[in-house]
Amino acid sequence: MCELPEATSWKLRINLHALQTSTRQEISHQPSFASGGTLRPSLLFETSQDQSYEELVNCLPAKPVVDQLVNLFVNGLDIPTLPIHLPVFLKDYQLFWDNPGRVSLPWLSILFSIISLGLQYVLRSGSAIDGIPYTEPACRKFASKAAECLRTFDYAKPAPRTVEAMIMYMLCEHIWLGEYRFRASLILSLTIRLAMRAGYHRDPSHYSQISTFEGEVRRRSWSYLVQLDILFASYLGLPRHISDRRTDTALPSNIADEDLQPDITSLPSIRNPAEPSAISFLNYREQLCKILDQITDCTTSFEDLPYDKVLRLDLALDRQIDACPAWLDPSPRFEVRIMNDPATMNQAIEVDILAQRARIILHRRLLIPAHGNPQYLPSRNKCVAAAARILQHQITVSQISFNVDGMTVPNWRALSLMHEDFLLASIILCLHINQDIRHGKVSRDLEDSPSKEVELQEHLGLLGSCRKILLDAEKPNRDAQRAAQVIEVVLLQASKARNANPDKDEDTNDAITGVCPASSEPGPADFVPVGLEDGYFGDPYWFGNQVPMFSDLDHAFASFPSDEQFPFLAGSDLDDILSLGL
Question: In this protein, which residues make up the domain named Xylanolytic transcriptional activator regulatory (predicted)?
Fold first, then answer.
């Protein structure tokens, strides 16, 4: 499988070096978790013999434990939209304990997924659940049981709740696998194929045998899949599975869960989209995802992207942002006004980060050429402003938590795909500041440009906060650690540049900052600074070049020194750090 020429995550997933060395790394470089096992989706790679229905039911914890985890999932995890209808699920949940033999295996799979998701957040909170002494192995166990239910049922057969059970299981793997999200995307790919086989890509109005209630549930599930398809494609740099020309499923109606019951024969009154609701959020996010998909499609194409097309896409993004419901407005005044409603704040921040991500993807290839071509200055400014806005949101998101049953649960969005946006934004600001240093725009005395001084202080502060958040994480992944190291280099560079005597000759300044002198002559549109000819992390598309080249952050940092050696690099040029191993 081949990825597109420009992965839109902060790192590029195709790695020529990895292809060359994959054979010898197959055994020695497998990711693992604490227990020493291989981190992999159970649905695809499990080899143990599946259990019977009775044996699976007997694997459930005691009812009080399950009650606590279900309550945590429903009330504490702030997942605004779910592929399951919670009122019906909770009703079936009560009936299940009265008669454990009456539920289907897909429903039991959903229950195991909910238990696993709840335990994952118990693990993140540092708390404990009575009756489950070892939380981390239990997370894997119950996710594996969710997959086992699906395999025992034969999930390839279209049946009620199978698609929804697959989505819930995919959420387990997505959060658990963390930085290995490509493996979770395999589950998503399979789920989409199963959903299409079951007709989810066609609007339920075409099928008289589908009830009103079931039709709305299917619309919600399909919208969920469409958005995940776009998001995973964007983050992984892979093509989508769903073609808009081959689906006509309408957006779900904005109906409260309590008004949507299995016995209804017609849809109840639709709520005003201006009112906060999970479906209003879901529908608006899908519209933003469609714009992101257009931008991703254009920026990853092998064809040239004319600048007037960039501006048209930027205008389309602006119009979609302007169509945002007032309750999803993430402006500072609104943020203060809803401080007591963290769930709504989370949703507002999520859609704004999605919009800013789209902005960065659209304009980032012009970030460097803008230094030599004033025509691209608007793109550079929008790209940098979007990155700064995302890091401002990171601070807010990291401060939000939820209290359920005396347990403080951290904000799940900090563990989600949103984490990739924080890394992307931090690298954009790092590259921007590095270029300002190259062009002599960072010094102690900026009295001639007070606004530039304020902007620089803001960006340095955001990078410092980002680095602290990345390193303070209970379980920082490798990408976060490497990003924190890059941020450290940039902050040290900026500090030295600002403290350098502006009256010193050029060679002295170069020795202090560790960068090459910037030319006083304006460069061409495709100007690439010395030392970055191969592109940022080996990606020439960052600079508008048209030669496909791929790399991966892991490869870029293959020779990165250990933490003990890192202070030696404090005065090194960022480009030298980024080019290690390339």
Answer: 184-258
Question: What DSSP letter does each residue of 231-249 carry, written as one string?
Answer: HHHHHHT---S--GGG--P
pTM of the model: 0.78
CA 364 – CA 541 distance, rounded (Å): 9
Measured CA to CA, the distance from residue 434 to residue 541 in angstroms comes to 18
DSSP 8-state symbol, 301: S
In a domain, residue 554? The reply is yes
pLDDT tens, residue by residue, 484-518: 999 999 999 888 887 764 544 443 333 223 333 33
Identify the sign of the CA torsion 176, 182, 185, 187: negative
**What span, in angstroms and rounded, lies between the C-alpha atoms of 455 and 465?**
15
How far is residue 525's CA from residue 377's CA, in Å, rounded to a whole number? 11
Render 229-293 in DSSP notation, one character per residue: HHHHHHHHT---S--GGG--PPPPP---GGG--TT-SS--PPPPTTS--HHHHHHHHHHHHHHHH
Calculate the CA 511 to chain-centre distance: 39
- End residue of a domain, out of 224, 241, 262: 262
Same domain, 334 and 255: no
State the Cα–Cα distance between residues 439 and 371, nearest whole angstrom: 8
What would the pLDDT profile of 407-432 be if each residue is shown by its tens digit? Answer: 676 676 665 678 889 999 999 999 99
Please give the structure tokens belonging to residue 461: 């502060």
Instruction: Give the pLDDT mean for 361-374.
Output: 92
Quick one: 247 and 336 in the same domain?
no
Query: What is the DSSP secondary structure assignment for residue 545, as one 8-state letter?
Result: -
Q: Domain of 146?
A: 32-262
Residue at 246 is within a domain: yes
Place of tokens 């290839």: 365
Q: Which of 435, 418, 434, 426 is nearest to 465 (CA)?
A: 426
Any idea what DSSP says for residue 206? G
Number of folded domains that form the chain = 2
pLDDT of residue 176: 59
Radius of gyration of the chain, Cα coordinates, nearest whole angstrom: 25
Alpha-carbon distances of 53 from 64, 93, 168, 298, rounded to whole Å:
21, 17, 19, 49
pLDDT, residue 116, reads: 93
Are residue 552 and residue 474 in the same domain, yes or no?
A: yes
d(CA 215, CA 203): 8
Q: How far, rounded to the nearest angstrom, does the alpha carbon of residue 445 sit from its chain's CA centroid?
A: 39
Which residue, of 262, 287, 317, is where some domain finishes? 262
Residues 257, 335, single domain; the answer is: no
* Residue 322 belongs to a domain: no
Closest CA to 282 of 242, 226, 244, 330: 226
CA 355 to chain CA centroid, Å, is: 13
Tell me: do 87 and 169 sit in the same domain: yes
Q: Are residues 193 and 63 in the same domain?
A: yes
